[in-house]
Amino acid sequence: MTKRVLVTGATGRTGALVLKQLRQQSDQFQGIGFARSSSKVEEIFGSTESFFLGDITEQSSLETALQGCSSLVILTSAGVKMKASSTPGAPPQFEYEPGGMPETVDYYGQKNQIDAARKLGVEHIVLVGSMGGTNPNHPLNQMGNGKILIWKRKAEQYLIDSGIDYTIIRAGGLIDLEGGVRELLVGKNDTLLTNPPDGIATSIPRADVASVVVQALQEPDARNKAFDVISKPQDAPDAIVTRDFAMLFQQTTPGI
Ligand code: NAP
After folding, report:
1. Which pLDDT score, from 0 to 100, does residue 86 have?
2. Low-confidence stretches of the chain (pLDDT beneath 70)
3. Is residue 76 situated within a structural domain?
Protein backbone atom coordinates (compact mmCIF):
# COMPACT_ATOMS: atom_id res chain seq x y z
CA MET A 1 0.00 0.00 0.00
CA THR A 2 1.31 3.48 -0.80
CA LYS A 3 1.96 5.94 2.01
CA ARG A 4 0.17 9.29 1.61
CA VAL A 5 2.59 12.06 2.60
CA LEU A 6 1.89 15.80 2.84
CA VAL A 7 4.87 18.07 2.15
CA THR A 8 4.49 21.66 3.36
CA GLY A 9 6.80 24.35 1.98
CA ALA A 10 6.54 22.34 -1.25
CA THR A 11 7.36 25.40 -3.37
CA GLY A 12 10.52 25.94 -1.34
CA ARG A 13 13.90 24.87 -2.59
CA THR A 14 14.19 21.71 -0.46
CA GLY A 15 10.44 21.03 -0.20
CA ALA A 16 10.09 20.86 -4.00
CA LEU A 17 12.93 18.33 -4.18
CA VAL A 18 11.28 16.17 -1.51
CA LEU A 19 7.93 16.18 -3.32
CA LYS A 20 9.59 15.34 -6.65
CA GLN A 21 11.48 12.43 -5.06
CA LEU A 22 8.27 11.10 -3.48
CA ARG A 23 6.45 11.32 -6.80
CA GLN A 24 9.30 9.45 -8.51
CA GLN A 25 8.66 6.60 -6.04
CA SER A 26 4.95 6.35 -6.76
CA ASP A 27 4.95 2.63 -5.92
CA GLN A 28 5.65 3.60 -2.31
CA PHE A 29 4.35 7.12 -1.86
CA GLN A 30 1.47 9.36 -2.77
CA GLY A 31 3.14 12.79 -2.53
CA ILE A 32 0.76 15.67 -1.76
CA GLY A 33 1.94 19.28 -1.71
CA PHE A 34 0.90 22.22 0.45
CA ALA A 35 1.77 25.74 -0.69
CA ARG A 36 0.43 29.28 -0.56
CA SER A 37 1.02 30.31 -4.18
CA SER A 38 -0.74 28.50 -7.03
CA SER A 39 1.37 30.30 -9.64
CA LYS A 40 4.55 29.09 -7.96
CA VAL A 41 3.17 25.52 -7.87
CA GLU A 42 2.38 25.71 -11.59
CA GLU A 43 5.81 27.13 -12.35
CA ILE A 44 7.63 24.34 -10.48
CA PHE A 45 5.32 21.33 -11.00
CA GLY A 46 3.38 22.23 -14.16
CA SER A 47 -0.03 21.92 -12.46
CA THR A 48 -1.73 22.19 -9.08
CA GLU A 49 -2.86 18.55 -9.18
CA SER A 50 -2.41 16.81 -5.79
CA PHE A 51 -1.76 20.17 -4.15
CA PHE A 52 -3.61 21.96 -1.38
CA LEU A 53 -3.34 25.74 -1.24
CA GLY A 54 -3.23 27.42 2.13
CA ASP A 55 -1.22 29.13 4.80
CA ILE A 56 0.35 27.34 7.75
CA THR A 57 -0.83 30.13 10.04
CA GLU A 58 -4.40 28.81 9.46
CA GLN A 59 -4.90 25.39 10.98
CA SER A 60 -8.16 24.64 9.12
CA SER A 61 -6.48 24.50 5.69
CA LEU A 62 -3.86 22.13 7.13
CA GLU A 63 -6.54 19.82 8.51
CA THR A 64 -8.14 19.57 5.06
CA ALA A 65 -4.78 18.82 3.44
CA LEU A 66 -3.83 16.17 6.00
CA GLN A 67 -6.94 14.02 5.50
CA GLY A 68 -5.80 10.43 4.89
CA CYS A 69 -2.08 11.19 5.34
CA SER A 70 0.07 8.86 7.43
CA SER A 71 3.10 11.20 7.36
CA LEU A 72 3.81 14.92 7.25
CA VAL A 73 7.03 16.56 6.06
CA ILE A 74 7.48 20.10 7.40
CA LEU A 75 9.64 22.21 5.12
CA THR A 76 8.20 25.64 5.76
CA SER A 77 10.42 28.42 7.04
CA ALA A 78 10.42 32.17 7.46
CA GLY A 79 12.63 33.84 4.86
CA VAL A 80 14.77 36.84 5.64
CA LYS A 81 15.78 39.35 2.98
CA MET A 82 18.25 42.20 2.80
CA LYS A 83 16.78 45.68 3.23
CA ALA A 84 17.56 48.21 0.56
CA SER A 85 20.28 50.17 2.37
CA SER A 86 19.64 53.86 2.79
CA THR A 87 23.26 54.60 3.66
CA PRO A 88 25.84 53.55 1.06
CA GLY A 89 28.65 51.54 2.68
CA ALA A 90 26.65 50.82 5.86
CA PRO A 91 26.45 47.18 7.06
CA PRO A 92 23.51 45.32 5.48
CA GLN A 93 20.22 45.26 7.37
CA PHE A 94 17.74 42.37 7.16
CA GLU A 95 13.96 42.06 7.47
CA TYR A 96 11.14 39.50 7.28
CA GLU A 97 8.01 40.04 5.21
CA PRO A 98 4.98 41.41 7.12
CA GLY A 99 3.33 38.50 8.97
CA GLY A 100 6.36 36.33 8.23
CA MET A 101 8.45 36.65 11.39
CA PRO A 102 10.01 33.40 12.67
CA GLU A 103 7.82 33.41 15.78
CA THR A 104 4.76 33.28 13.47
CA VAL A 105 6.10 30.90 10.80
CA ASP A 106 8.72 28.75 12.52
CA TYR A 107 6.96 28.41 15.86
CA TYR A 108 3.19 28.98 15.54
CA GLY A 109 3.17 27.77 11.91
CA GLN A 110 4.96 24.53 12.84
CA LYS A 111 2.82 24.15 15.97
CA ASN A 112 -0.33 24.45 13.82
CA GLN A 113 0.97 21.69 11.58
CA ILE A 114 1.79 19.42 14.53
CA ASP A 115 -1.59 20.09 16.17
CA ALA A 116 -3.46 19.42 12.91
CA ALA A 117 -1.45 16.22 12.38
CA ARG A 118 -2.24 15.00 15.89
CA LYS A 119 -5.94 15.74 15.36
CA LEU A 120 -5.98 13.81 12.08
CA GLY A 121 -4.05 10.80 13.45
CA VAL A 122 -0.87 11.31 11.41
CA GLU A 123 1.71 8.72 12.53
CA HIS A 124 5.03 10.37 11.69
CA ILE A 125 6.34 13.91 11.18
CA VAL A 126 9.66 14.69 9.52
CA LEU A 127 10.77 18.25 10.33
CA VAL A 128 13.70 19.92 8.61
CA GLY A 129 15.41 22.51 10.77
CA SER A 130 18.78 24.10 11.03
CA MET A 131 22.04 23.56 12.85
CA GLY A 132 23.18 26.38 15.15
CA GLY A 133 20.21 26.32 17.53
CA THR A 134 22.28 25.60 20.65
CA ASN A 135 23.85 29.08 20.41
CA PRO A 136 21.41 31.89 21.31
CA ASN A 137 23.97 34.40 20.00
CA HIS A 138 24.18 32.76 16.57
CA PRO A 139 24.28 35.52 13.89
CA LEU A 140 21.12 34.09 12.24
CA ASN A 141 19.20 34.99 15.42
CA GLN A 142 20.23 38.64 15.06
CA MET A 143 19.02 38.94 11.44
CA GLY A 144 15.86 41.05 11.34
CA ASN A 145 15.74 40.52 15.12
CA GLY A 146 13.87 37.29 14.28
CA LYS A 147 15.60 34.86 16.70
CA ILE A 148 14.87 32.27 14.03
CA LEU A 149 16.94 29.42 15.46
CA ILE A 150 15.40 29.91 18.90
CA TRP A 151 11.86 29.64 17.48
CA LYS A 152 12.79 26.65 15.31
CA ARG A 153 14.19 24.82 18.32
CA LYS A 154 11.11 25.59 20.38
CA ALA A 155 8.98 24.01 17.63
CA GLU A 156 11.28 20.97 17.61
CA GLN A 157 10.68 20.50 21.33
CA TYR A 158 6.91 20.90 20.76
CA LEU A 159 7.07 18.11 18.18
CA ILE A 160 9.03 15.82 20.52
CA ASP A 161 6.49 16.46 23.28
CA SER A 162 3.52 15.86 20.93
CA GLY A 163 3.73 12.07 21.19
CA ILE A 164 3.75 11.69 17.38
CA ASP A 165 6.74 9.79 15.96
CA TYR A 166 9.28 12.38 14.86
CA THR A 167 12.42 12.75 12.79
CA ILE A 168 14.14 16.13 13.21
CA ILE A 169 16.80 16.81 10.59
CA ARG A 170 18.96 19.86 11.36
CA ALA A 171 20.83 20.68 8.21
CA GLY A 172 24.11 22.53 7.84
CA GLY A 173 24.39 25.35 5.28
CA LEU A 174 22.26 24.40 2.27
CA ILE A 175 23.87 24.37 -1.17
CA ASP A 176 22.35 23.68 -4.58
CA LEU A 177 24.65 20.93 -5.83
CA GLU A 178 24.13 17.38 -7.05
CA GLY A 179 22.80 14.89 -4.50
CA GLY A 180 23.82 11.27 -3.94
CA VAL A 181 27.55 11.78 -4.51
CA ARG A 182 28.78 12.65 -1.01
CA GLU A 183 29.29 11.00 2.35
CA LEU A 184 26.83 12.36 4.89
CA LEU A 185 27.81 12.91 8.51
CA VAL A 186 25.37 13.05 11.42
CA GLY A 187 25.88 14.61 14.83
CA LYS A 188 24.09 16.35 17.66
CA ASN A 189 24.23 19.56 19.70
CA ASP A 190 26.04 21.47 16.92
CA THR A 191 29.33 19.61 17.46
CA LEU A 192 29.75 19.27 13.68
CA LEU A 193 29.41 23.05 13.48
CA THR A 194 31.80 23.92 16.30
CA ASN A 195 34.31 21.16 15.53
CA PRO A 196 33.89 19.86 11.95
CA PRO A 197 36.08 16.84 11.10
CA ASP A 198 39.21 17.95 9.21
CA GLY A 199 37.80 21.49 9.27
CA ILE A 200 35.45 20.74 6.35
CA ALA A 201 32.71 23.18 5.33
CA THR A 202 29.57 22.56 7.38
CA SER A 203 27.28 22.40 4.35
CA ILE A 204 25.06 19.88 2.57
CA PRO A 205 23.27 19.86 -0.81
CA ARG A 206 19.51 20.40 -0.62
CA ALA A 207 19.12 17.27 -2.77
CA ASP A 208 20.85 15.20 -0.07
CA VAL A 209 18.63 16.68 2.64
CA ALA A 210 15.64 15.68 0.47
CA SER A 211 16.99 12.11 0.27
CA VAL A 212 17.44 11.98 4.05
CA VAL A 213 13.79 13.07 4.41
CA VAL A 214 12.51 10.41 1.99
CA GLN A 215 14.65 7.70 3.60
CA ALA A 216 13.46 8.78 7.05
CA LEU A 217 9.88 8.11 5.92
CA GLN A 218 10.86 4.49 5.26
CA GLU A 219 13.50 3.51 7.82
CA PRO A 220 12.35 2.51 11.32
CA ASP A 221 15.71 3.63 12.75
CA ALA A 222 14.85 7.25 11.84
CA ARG A 223 11.82 7.30 14.14
CA ASN A 224 12.01 9.44 17.27
CA LYS A 225 15.42 10.83 16.43
CA ALA A 226 16.82 14.37 16.15
CA PHE A 227 20.17 15.00 14.53
CA ASP A 228 22.45 17.42 12.69
CA VAL A 229 23.60 16.55 9.18
CA ILE A 230 26.33 17.84 6.86
CA SER A 231 28.22 16.31 3.93
CA LYS A 232 31.89 15.72 3.27
CA PRO A 233 33.21 17.47 0.16
CA GLN A 234 32.69 15.36 -2.96
CA ASP A 235 36.45 15.11 -3.50
CA ALA A 236 37.38 14.24 0.10
CA PRO A 237 39.96 11.47 -0.24
CA ASP A 238 38.45 9.24 2.49
CA ALA A 239 34.78 9.83 1.57
CA ILE A 240 32.44 6.86 1.11
CA VAL A 241 29.22 7.95 -0.59
CA THR A 242 26.27 7.38 1.76
CA ARG A 243 23.93 4.70 0.40
CA ASP A 244 23.01 2.80 3.55
CA PHE A 245 20.61 5.17 5.29
CA ALA A 246 19.56 2.61 7.90
CA MET A 247 23.18 2.65 9.08
CA LEU A 248 23.23 6.46 9.06
CA PHE A 249 20.07 6.63 11.20
CA GLN A 250 21.49 4.03 13.61
CA GLN A 251 24.09 6.66 14.55
CA THR A 252 21.38 9.14 15.63
CA THR A 253 19.67 9.53 19.00
CA PRO A 254 16.28 10.48 20.48
CA GLY A 255 15.53 13.82 22.17
CA ILE A 256 16.35 17.39 21.24
P1 NAP B 1 12.87 27.85 1.37
O2 NAP B 1 13.26 27.72 -0.06
O3 NAP B 1 13.09 29.18 2.04
O4 NAP B 1 11.33 27.42 1.51
C5 NAP B 1 10.52 27.82 2.58
C6 NAP B 1 9.09 27.49 2.21
O7 NAP B 1 8.21 27.87 3.28
C8 NAP B 1 8.59 28.21 0.95
O9 NAP B 1 7.95 27.27 0.12
C10 NAP B 1 7.56 29.20 1.50
O11 NAP B 1 6.51 29.47 0.61
C12 NAP B 1 7.04 28.41 2.69
N13 NAP B 1 6.32 29.27 3.62
C14 NAP B 1 6.79 30.31 4.36
N15 NAP B 1 5.81 30.86 5.08
C16 NAP B 1 4.68 30.15 4.79
C17 NAP B 1 3.32 30.25 5.23
N18 NAP B 1 2.93 31.18 6.11
N19 NAP B 1 2.42 29.36 4.74
C20 NAP B 1 2.79 28.41 3.84
N21 NAP B 1 4.07 28.26 3.39
C22 NAP B 1 5.00 29.14 3.87
O23 NAP B 1 13.58 26.70 2.23
P24 NAP B 1 15.01 26.03 2.03
O25 NAP B 1 16.05 27.07 1.76
O26 NAP B 1 14.87 24.87 1.12
O27 NAP B 1 15.29 25.53 3.54
C28 NAP B 1 14.62 24.40 4.06
C29 NAP B 1 14.78 24.37 5.57
O30 NAP B 1 16.17 24.23 5.90
C31 NAP B 1 14.32 25.64 6.29
O32 NAP B 1 13.76 25.30 7.53
C33 NAP B 1 15.62 26.38 6.51
O34 NAP B 1 15.55 27.29 7.60
C35 NAP B 1 16.54 25.23 6.82
N36 NAP B 1 17.97 25.52 6.65
C37 NAP B 1 18.43 26.45 5.75
C38 NAP B 1 19.79 26.65 5.61
C39 NAP B 1 20.36 27.57 4.57
O40 NAP B 1 21.57 27.55 4.38
N41 NAP B 1 19.53 28.35 3.91
C42 NAP B 1 20.68 25.95 6.40
C43 NAP B 1 20.20 25.00 7.29
C44 NAP B 1 18.84 24.78 7.39
P45 NAP B 1 6.74 30.34 -0.75
O46 NAP B 1 7.37 29.38 -1.70
O47 NAP B 1 5.36 30.74 -1.12
O48 NAP B 1 7.63 31.47 -0.37
Report:
1. 61
2. 85-86
3. yes
- Tell me the residue range of the domain where 20 lies: 3-250
11 domain-assigned? yes
State which of 51, 77, 112 you would mutate to test the pocket of ligand 1, scoring each by most atoms of that ligand within 8 A of its C-beta: 77
Distance 238 CA to ligand 1 centre (A): 33
Does some domain include residue 237?
A: yes
Q: What is the share, in percent, of the chain residues with pLDDT greater than 90?
A: 96
Q: Whose CA is nearest to atom 9 of ligand 1?
A: 12
Neighbours of 223 (CB within 10 A): 15
Q: Which residues pair with 171 in a beta bridge?
A: 130, 229
CATH of the domain at 54: 3.40.50.720
Domain count, the chain: 1
pTM: 0.98
- Evaluate whether residue 95 is within a structural domain: yes
Cα–Cα distance for residue pair 5/2, rounded to 1 Å: 9
Which ranges in 143-251 belong to alpha helices (H)?
A: 148-162, 191-194, 206-216, 245-250
Nearest to 150 by CA among 165, 167, 175, 132: 132
- The partner residues of 40 in beta bridges, in order of sequence, read none
The catalytically annotated residue of 71, 130, 211, 231 is 130
Closest-CA residue, ligand 1 atom 36, reads: 130
- Assess whether 47 carries a catalytic annotation: no
Which residue owns the Cα nearest ligand 1 atom 25?
Answer: 13
